[in-house]
Amino acid sequence: KLTVNAAPEPIKKGKTLTVTGALTRANWDTEKYAGYTSQPVKLQYQKRGSTAWSTVKTVKSDGRGNLKTTVKATADGSFRYSFAGTSTTPAVNSGADYVDVR
To answer: Is the peptide bond prior to 90 cis by the omega test (within 30 degrees of 0)?
Structure first.
């Protein structure tokens, strides 16, 4: 699973936006989801009205699978995280979080 949350919303143009999330995968021994650590995950942006996603930067998940980075707010649009997958874990995209830039 992959989640995303961009805050604060709404935000003034030029201000710093914090984008958090978490990358987890099933642990079949415990039958629960656990953080997937030290994995590269792309932060992607889609400008309002566009269908294309562009990669802003790559973030590495921490020791608990958490993701956190900052970007400058430039225009209305959506952010998502994208994980390319590994030999044991499939690729996944988070949902999108729309940000209103004023």
So the answer is: no
